[in-house]
Amino acid sequence: PSDIATHARLIAGFSDVVAVALKNDGSARLVADSVSRGVINLGDACGDPFTLLRDLYSIAKSRGGVNGNVNGLEKIKIAILGNLKYNKLIHSFVSVLSLFSPRIYFVSPEELQFPIDKLKELNSKRVVFTEHDNIEGVISNIDVIFSFGLQRNDFRDVSEYNASIKRFSINNNTLHGVKENLAIFGELPNSLFSRDVDNGLD
Fold first, then answer.
1. What is the full DSSP assignment across 163-180?
2. What is the pLDDT, as a whole number, of residue 19?
3. What is the pLDDT of residue 53?
4. From start to end of 1-123, where are the E strands?
5. Which residues of the chain have pLDDT under 70?
6. Which residue, among 62, 56, 3, 69, has the nearest Cα to 34 in the 3D structure?
7. pLDDT, tens only, 47-73
């Protein structure tokens, strides 16, 4: 930690802003406490706030928000799809999103559902949410799909993985009957975006 602080002070002497992307837990806070310059936290062991803010900004902008307000996030109806159990970014994303009175549809395999303790937090904030094992039943109601994908190592064997990819995949047939202004977000490439959908995303 002392080496991080020393290097941070050295870098700060030649810059106006210090950007920090280290694996050490709390490294960004250590740098911020060590320098008098502005610090941008690009991620540490606790998560990636830069990616989180980028995603929230993109969603708000797609719905006419930003430019001094975040109205694009207010009362949004969003389906969050994929491995919801272990991804810290998802947990942080939902925590911030909960400030805007969203209606959340959690869509995932049963063994990868959003953690119970996190659901209790949402209940305490009076956030309306439901859990689903397929996207078809909710897709006509939502404003945004956010897919975090599924990985082979999320499952005990490849057959379970392939079955889940087939079950939760977003394709042109899945998108039949959705809202005209439905927005789809997720990292690319994304295991749950079929090729026809993937090719249409920026």
1. HHHHHH-B-TTTTTT--T
2. 83
3. 80
4. 17-20, 38-41, 77-81, 103-107
5. 1-2, 23, 43-49, 65-71, 188-189, 195-202
6. 3
7. 566 778 888 888 888 877 655 555 678
At 197 the pLDDT is 65
Q: How far is CA 77 from CA 89, 150, 190, in A?
A: 19, 22, 21
Determine how β-strand 144-147 pairs with β-strand 77-81.
Answer: parallel
Cα(179)–Cα(112) distance, integer angstroms: 27
| Whole-number Å distance between alpha carbons of 189 and 200 | 12
Work out whether strand 128-132 and strand 144-147 pair parallel, antiparallel, or are unpaired.
Answer: unpaired
**Other Cβ atoms within 10 Å of 194 Cβ, number:** 16
CA distance 59 to 183: 8
Q: Give the helix/strand (H/E) hosting 185.
A: strand 183-186
The kind and range of the H/E element at 186 are strand 183-186
- Whole-angstrom distance, CA of residue 17 vs CA of residue 36: 9
Question: What sign results for the dihedral spanned by CA atoms 27, 32, 36, 39?
Answer: positive
Measure the N-to-C terminal CA separation of the chain; round to a whole number of Å.
39
Task: Tell me the C-alpha distance between 133 and 143, whole Å.
Answer: 19
Distance (Å, rounded) from C-alpha 126 to C-alpha 128? 6
Gap between the Cα atoms of 183 and 17, Å rounded: 34
